[in-house]
Amino acid sequence: MYVDDIRTAPDRGETAAGPDTAAGAGGAGPRPTPSTAWIDLARVAAMAAVVLIHAYSPLVTEVYTGQGSTSWWTSTALDAALRWCVPLFVMISGALLLGPRDEAAPDFYRKRWARIGVPLVVWTVAYLAWDMWRTGLTLSGAVEQAASGEPGIHLYFLYVIAGLYVFTPFLRTLAGAASRSALWWFTGAALAFGAADQALGLIDGVGGTTAVARFLPYVGYYVLGWLLFHGPTGTRPLRLGLTLLVTGSAAGAVGAGALAELAGEWGAGADYVFDFLSPAVIAASIGAFLVLREAGLRLASSDRWAAALVSRTARWAAAPSFGVYLVHVMVLFTLRDLFGMPAEGPWSVVAAAGYAVVVIAASLAVVEMIRRIPFARAVV
Question: Which residue intervals are annotated with compositional bias (Basic and acidic residues) in the record (predicted)?
C-alpha cells in the first residue's frame, strides 16, 4: 500500500531512495539521502485517517444525520481535514521508490509482485465473496467490480499502486535524468490532468475507470512525493505545510458543504470537492506531507522520553498498518450490521469516533492472528 516495503520501516532495511544524481538534483551534484525517520509516523497517521473517513462517511452522506445539522457539518469538516490520507500513501511510495537504484526491472517486478500482487488477488476474491454473502452481489456484478478496479470501497488503492509499480523503473529514469524544474512541470501537469479528468466525470455519461487505468491520475502524486522528499526541511516548509493543510481542508469542507446545500443532498459536486484529485485535497495533501515529515523528523531527533515513546509506538504500529488497511472495512461493516450507528444527533459524531477506535484495535488483532498463520503473512 505505501510502498517500498510497508512491512518494514526503510531505516531498518534497504534504503529505497539513493543519493540524488547531478541532473536529478538540478545539477547540484550528489548529496546525502534524506532521512526516512518520519515515514512510520506518516503511515500510521494516514492509516488512522482512512479508518476515520470510513467511520464518518455515513454521517457526511446523510445516512445517519440530517443535512445542515451540527453533526453533519462537524462530520463534513472532519472528513475534509483527513482527505490527504490516500494521496499521502502515494507520495510516500514515490518518495521511497523513485530514487536511483542498481536494480533491474525484472528484479523489481518480482519483489513487488510478492508485496502487492498476492494481496491484490487474495483480497479482491475475499471481498467479492464476502459481498456476495453479505449483500447478495451477483457473479456478474462481482466481475464488473473487479474489472473496474474497485472490488471493495478501499481496494482500488491496490490497483493504483500496482499500476504505479509497473511504470516505476521508467519513472526512476525520469527522476534521475530530468532537472527538478522539469519534474515540477511534469508533476503539475499530471495533477492538473488528473483533476480535470475527475471534473469531467461530473458530466452525465462521461467517465468510468477500469482496473488497468486506475493508477493514471495518481502519477502526479507519485512523482510529487519524490520531489517533496528531496526538498528542504525546517521551519519554512513546516509553515507552508500548515498553511496548505488548513486552507485546503477548510476549502474542502466549505466547498463540499455549500454544494450539498445547493443541491439539497450530497451529490456529485460535493463528491468532486472531496475527491483525492480536487484542488482543495491536492493542497491539503502537500501540506500533510510537509507537516508530518517535519513532525516525524523532530520526534526522531528529540531526546525527550515522550518523543521516544511516540516514535516507538509509530514504528510498532506501522508494521501491521497495511493489513489494517485491508481488513478494516470488513470489521467496520460487520459492526455496523450488528449495531448500526449507536447514537443520533450530536452524539453520532462521538459514536463514529468510537467506532474508529474499536475498528483499529480489532483490525490490529485480526492482522496479528493472520501474521501468525503459516504462509498467510504474505497477504497482510
Answer: 1-14
Give the distance between the most distant pair of CA atoms in the chain: 60
- What percentage of the chain carries pLDDT values higher than 70? 90
C-beta separation of 319 from 7 below 8 A: yes
Reduced to 3 states (helix: H, G, I; strand: E, B; else coil), residue 377 is helix
Cell of 83: 482527505
Task: Tell me the whole-structure pTM to 2 decimals.
Answer: 0.89
- Which amino acid is located at 222 in the chain? Y
Grid cell, residue 111, equals: 519483489
Three-class DSSP category at 65: coil
In sequence order, what are the residues at sequence separation of 6 or more whose Cβ sits closer than 8 angstroms to the Cβ of residue 325? Answer: 1, 47, 50, 154, 157
pLDDT below 50 — which residues of the chain?
Answer: 1-30
Q: Report pLDDT digits (tens) over 234-285.
A: 999 999 999 999 999 999 999 999 999 999 889 889 999 999 999 999 999 9
Q: What are the boundaries of each domain within the chain? A: 38-58+66-318
Q: Cell digits for 64?
A: 445517519
Distance between CA atoms of residues 274 and 268, nearest Å = 10
Give the integer Cα–Cα distance in Å for 337 and 316: 31
* pLDDT at residue 204, rounded to an integer: 65
Burial class (CB in 10 A: 0-12, 13-18, 19+), 97: buried
Helical H runs in the chain? 39-60, 70-80, 85-97, 105-112, 118-135, 139-148, 156-177, 180-200, 219-229, 235-263, 268-274, 279-301, 305-318, 321-339, 347-371
Residue 207: predicted pLDDT: 66
